[in-house]
Write a structure and sequence with these properties.
The protein is of the alpha/beta class. The protein has helices spanning 39-48, 65-77, 103-108, 116-123, 142-150, 182-192, 208-219, 251-264, 279-288, 329-336, 357-362, 393-405, 416-419, 425-431, 441-447, and strands spanning 19-24, 30-34, 55-59, 80-85, 88-92, 100-101, 125-129, 154-158, 161-165, 174-176, 198-202, 223-228, 231-235, 244-246, 267-271, 291-294, 298-302, 311-312, 316-317, 339-346, 367-371, 374-379, 387-389, 409-413, 435-440. It starts with 18 loop residues before the first strand and ends with a helix. It binds ligand EPZ. Residues 39-40, 43, 111, 134, 139-144, 181-184, 326-327, 349-350, 393-394, 421 line the site of ligand EPZ.
Length: 448
């Protein structure tokens, strides 16, 4: 490290502006909603752009807090990040002089750890903080670290930081994961693009966002390919070039709006929606009785069955793609509060991603959390507006869904969590006829 800046970065988290959503429920949503670019693709594409000194251009990037956090982290490293228009980012990583990703960046966003692979691979060294991220249980990064070691890196952990070096170049090798990891796969793949020789990654995550990253890397001149559904192979190159890329649509945002129509008994059209990435979720909607039909890049949702035949209870289990996305488990749980009978929810990916159900229980949901991975929901439940608190991004969006379905006013504290991952969420709901506002915490209390 040429620089003498201290490694023990003093941690001063930015003051979070405390805001509340206030939702007046019980209105069927109708109209058309545009689906934004995928958060979990955009963050990795921004990181991938550091693999070259040439300019990369990304379009359809969602304007969300996590993207802001990633671009600020890149700028702190010395990367030039231009933002010439909404949803367009240009990245030029010619002079990266500061190979240090501080606790400050990591605490704002777990995805900052995706910088490990590209920075290590291109510059041969990086110091990166152990990441924080969502409050959805223990989320270690051992698989990322093991993957880098399998490619020849030396990594030491001291005082909350990983000190990673790869004198010369990383070497291609076998990266074997004990189970599927999305960012683990992506970090290994990013590192391997500039390593010397051939890398095989198995089992590789199959999420559409991973394939979007592969498409971008190929545009940059990387030799990377999914050779089997669960295998990615990379032939390392000496250098990559700049590229232009449009981020794929956000399947999790799309699923969230499907449920919004379903729980309000509404009818909406999603535009620019990735039906082909929502197979398991759409199957689940069919089992519950929500009308979903796919066009070329539209999804029409008909939630009117909620008032006639009603929705049916259904057992759901999350799984790596192509299974039901863990990020769609909380919205789906809200739907199941409106279904007749007992539904069992098995959250198989993360610990503690069922904890937020205690908030929806306060609204009148008949929910029992059996253990950190299992819950039952006995419906249908008449939800009533009350005060609730958001603990993480997807739980936040799901509390908005519950509030839209509820009778009366719900005050939802912790709105900033939702802005990490949903672009213009209240504008989109307002355009569909919802009654939702966002105000500063104090103002909301004064007005209530
Ligand atoms: C990605 O997280 C997404 N985040 C998550 O999105 C998503 O929920 C998750 O994949 C699963 O689909 C981004 O893409 C930025 P994993 P990731 O590694 O890659 C364990 C959202 O709301 N594990 O596939 O971090 C881990 O604890 C979010 O947008 C280890 O044990 O998830 C989990 O149980 C939150 N060691 C399982 O693997 C590791 O080193 C799968 O997690 C890494 C992971």
């Amino acid at each position: 490290m040429a620089d003498a800046r201290p490694f023990h970065w003093e941690f001063h988290p930015e003051p979070v502006v405390r805001e509340v959503f206030r939702v007046e429920g019980g209105r069927p949503l109708s109209g058309t909603v545009p689906i934004s670019g995928a958060k979990n693709a955009a963050l990795k594409l921004l990181a991938a752009a550091t693999l070259t000194g040439e300019r990369c251009r990304l379009t359809n990037v969602p304007e969300i807090e996590d993207v802001r956090a990633m671009t600020e982290t890149l700028r702190d490293l010395g990367v030039v990040v231009d933002h010439p228009a909404d949803n367009v980012y240009e990245i030029a990583s010619g002079d990266v002089e500061w190979l240090f990703v501080p606790l400050e960046a990591a605490a704002r966003m777990r995805a900052s750890f995706i910088l490990l692979g590209p920075l290590l691979s291109r510059f041969g060294r990086v110091i990166i903080s152990n990441p924080g991220g969502d409050r959805i249980g223990r989320r270690p990064v051992d698989l990322h670290v093991d993957a880098m070691r399998a490619l020849g890196a030396s990594i030491e952990y001291r005082n909350g930081y990983y000190f990673a070096t790869a004198p010369g170049r990383l070497r291609g090798g076998e990266v074997r994961f004990p189970f599927v990891s999305v960012m683990g796969t992506e970090n290994a793949m990013l590192a391997a693009t500039l390593a010397e020789g051939h890398t095989v990654i198995r089992p590789a995550a199959q999420e559409p966002e991973v394939d979007d990253l592969i498409a971008f890397l190929q545009q940059m001149g990387a030799e990377v390919e999914r050779t089997f559904p669960d295998t990615i192979e990379v032939e390392g190159r000496k250098r990559l070039r700049g590229a232009d890329h449009r981020v794929i649509p956000d399947r999790i945002e799309a699923g969230t709006f499907v449920i919004a129509a379903a729980v309000t008994g509404g009818r909406i059209r999603l535009e620019g929606a990735p039906c082909e990435h929502l197979g398991s979720f759409i199957d689940t909607m069919g089992r519950v009785g929500v009308g979903v039909s796919c066009g070329k890049d539209t999804i029409d949702v008909d939630g009117t069955a909620i008032g006639s035949s009603g929705y049916r209870a259904c057992d759901v289990e999350t799984a790596p793609y192509p299974g039901l996305a863990t990020d769609l488990q909380p919205p789906t749980a809200v739907l199941l509060t409106q279904a007749t009978g007992v539904s069992r929810v098995h959250e198989a990916i993360f610990e503690d991603r069922l904890e937020w159900l205690s908030e929806v229980r306060r609204m009148g949901a008949n929910v029992e959390v059996l253990d950190p991975h299992h819950a039952t929901i006995s419906g249908p439940n008449h939800l009533l507006g009350t005060e609730v608190e958001i603990g993480d991004l997807r739980a936040g969006a799901s509390l908005i869904l519950a509030a839209l379905a509820a009778q009366g006013t719900t005050t939802i504290h912790g709105a900033h969590h939702v802005h990490r991952g949903y672009e213009n969420i209240e504008r989109k709901f307002l355009d569909l006829g919802a009654s939702i506002s966002r105000t500063a915490e104090g103002a909301a209390v004064t007005n209530s």
